[in-house]
Amino acid sequence: MPTIVFASPKGGAGKSTSAVILAAELARKGAAVTVIDADPNRPVSAWARRPGKPAALEVVSDVTEETVIDAIENAAARVPFVIVDLEGTASMTVAYAISRADLVIIPTQGSQLDAAEAAKAIRLIRQQERAFARRIPHAVLFTRTSAAIRPRTLQHIRAEFEAHGVPSLETQMHEREAYRAVFSFGGTVDSLTEAQVGGLDGAIRNARAFAAEVVGLLRQTQTAAAAA
Ligand SMILES: Nc1ncnc2c1ncn2[C@@H]1O[C@H](COP(=O)(O)OP(=O)(O)OP(=O)(O)O)[C@@H](O)[C@H]1O
Ligand SMILES: [Mg+2]
After folding, report:
1. Of the residues 45, 176, 180, which should be mutated to test ligand 1's pocket, given the most ligand atoms within 8 Å of the CB?
2. In CATH, what is the architecture of 3-227?
3. Is the CB of 14 under 6 A from ligand 1?
4. What is the model's pLDDT at position 26?
5. Number of H helices, E strands in the chain
6. Most Cβ neighbours (<10 Å): which of 33, 52, 133, 226?
C-alpha cells in the first residue's frame, strides 16, 4: 500500500539509515514491509545479508532505472508498507520513485548548507507534482541531531521550510551509535544487545516515535486525499 520514499541529493544525509530503522520498526509492529534498494551501492541489501533481519521485512535488490516503477507497483500490491531507499544524486530513478510516492521523506542534517541540498529535493518533488498533476506529500526529517541540545540554527531552518510550505517531522533521528551498529551487526535496534552498543533504550524510543509519526502522517494525507 503506501509507498514512502527517502530522497535527498546530499550524500550521507541519513536516507538509508532512517529507511532501515523505519522499516524495522514497522515490521516489529507486525506489518509486512518491502524495502526497495534503488541505490546502485546497495546499502540496504548489504544490511539484509547480515543476521537478524525481521522475517516480515523483505528487501528487493536488483532495481534499476528501468525496473524501479515495476518494483514499487509490485510491492505496493502485495504489502502494507513499501519503503524506497535512493542514491544521493539526482537521477531518473530518483524522479521515477518520487512520482510514485505517497510520502517523500527528505532527511537533512541541521545546517544551512544541508538545508540547501534538501531544497533541491523539494524542487524535484514539485516538478514531479506538476508533471503528474498530483500532490506528492513530503516532509523534512532532521537527522544526526543532538538528543541533548536544541540548536537555534535548527529551529531557524525548520521555520524557513515551514514558511515555504514544507513541513518537517516533529521527531528527529538523533545521532545515535545504535543506528550505525545496526549496519555493522545486522538486525535492528531491538535485536542489538548492550554488550554490542550502549544507549539502546534511547535509540529504540526514537525509532518508535519516528515510525508512529510517519504512520500518523500517512493517515492524515490519505484522509485528505479521500476528501479531495
Ligand atoms: N541518526 C544517525 N545516528 C548516527 N549515525 C547516523 C545517523 N544517520 C546516519 N548516520 C551515519 O551517517 C552516515 C551516512 O548515513 P546514510 O548512509 O544513512 O546516509 P545516506 O543519505 O543514505 O547516504 P548516501 O547518499 O550515500 O546513500 C553513515 O555513516 C551512517 O552510519
Ligand atoms: Mg544511502
Report:
1. 180
2. 3-Layer(aba) Sandwich (3.40)
3. yes
4. 98
5. 8, 7
6. 33
Pairwise CA distance, residues 129 & 99, whole Å: 8
Comparing CA positions, the residue from 90, 149, 144 lying closest to residue 121 is: 90
Q: Strand, coil or helix: what is 43?
A: helix
Q: Kindly give the number of the ligand 1 atom that is closest to the alpha carbon of 180.
A: 31
What would the grid cell of residue 46 be?
A: 548489504
Per-residue confidence band for 148, with pLDDT thresholds at 50, 70 and 90: confident
How is the chain split into domains, by residue range? 3-227
- Rounded distance between C-alpha atoms, residue 52 and residue 106, angstroms: 27
Q: Whose CA is nearest to atom 10 of ligand 1?
A: 14
- For residue 46, what are the CA distances in angstroms to 51, 65, 80, 100? 11, 20, 23, 25
Confirm or reject: Cβ of 129 under 6 Å from ligand 1.
Answer: no
Sort strands 81-85 and 33-37 into parallel, antiparallel or unpaired.
parallel
pLDDT digits (tens, 9 = 90+) for 67-119: 999 999 999 999 999 999 999 998 999 999 999 999 999 999 989 999 999 99
Nearest ligand, CA 17: 1
Helix (H) or strand (E) holding 33: strand 33-37
Residue 121 CA to ligand 1 centre (angstroms): 17
Query: Pairing mode, if any, of strands 3-6 and 81-85?
Result: parallel
Q: Is 142 in the pocket of ligand 1 (CB under 6 A)?
A: no
